[in-house]
Amino acid sequence: MSLESEAKKHVIELLEKGVRLDGRKLLEYRKPLKVNYGVSVNAEGSASVQIGETLVFAGVKLAIEQPYPDTPDEGLLMVGAELLPLANPRFEMGPPGIEAIELARIVDRGIRESGFIDLKKLCIEPGEKAWAVLIDICPINDAGNLFDASALAAFAALKNAVFPAVVDGKVDYGTKTNKKLPLVDVNPMSVTVFKIGDHFILDPTTEEQELYDARLTVGSMSDGRLCALQKGGDVPLSADDVQKMVKIGIQYGKELRKLVIK
User: Fold this and answer.
1) Sign of CA dihedral 159, 229, 255, 144
2) H-helix or E-strand spanning residue 101
3) CA atoms of 170 and 215, how far apart (whole Å)
4) pLDDT tens track for 132-151
5) Among the four given CATH numbers 3.30.700.20, 3.30.428.10, 3.30.230.70, 2.40.128.20, the one describing domain 3-257
6) What local confidence, expressed as pLDDT, does residue 7 receive?
7) DSSP state for residue 68 in the 8-state scheme
């Protein structure tokens, strides 16, 4: 039996007893679990999220761009993630890899599909000018569960963001206004549920993430409605699995939301 198989067998034996390698319960997040705002002076909005030893920064930049041809009366939303070696030695310098692209897409989907930003209110001149909301995700230390930490950091950064001043049609980034982004009171939150063997866990460590069979990122809104789902892992999920994971995701999304909505 390989070392990975031995490690997975040991983890599953612990899960059957209701505990994990670090002593937590199966559906328990690491501590500290906290959000800090305004971590970047130069961004229009920013926040950091710490979950255990995992630390992620998110920044929001606002720019005036031309709307997309198929949505001429709406603003733009773009999310990017950069996974640097400083966060985890297995990350490499260079163009975004598959992991960075998937991370950005998961964060983007939760925000976009919930309608959290009223994109129509970002339109300045239909077909010509609109505000673009650019979200950058930058993990500082990856100790597991970048999905939830990144989504929470992006959410908090959007809540923190204000418009820069516009002088003679040009953005003056040196001057910030008090005008907040046009956010809708749906407050999307993403929770990623991991399946190892027959057990579901939240907030995996790096070691646990290497052993999971499947995962499901559940994006939900304040009223409990789903807004996004993203499946990962090589093992298929049954309909019963999905129902259980969605229920867990919605329930714990309410707990994470409390960190930002006070």
Assistant:
1) negative
2) helix 98-114
3) 44
4) 999 999 999 999 999 999 99
5) 3.30.230.70
6) 86
7) P
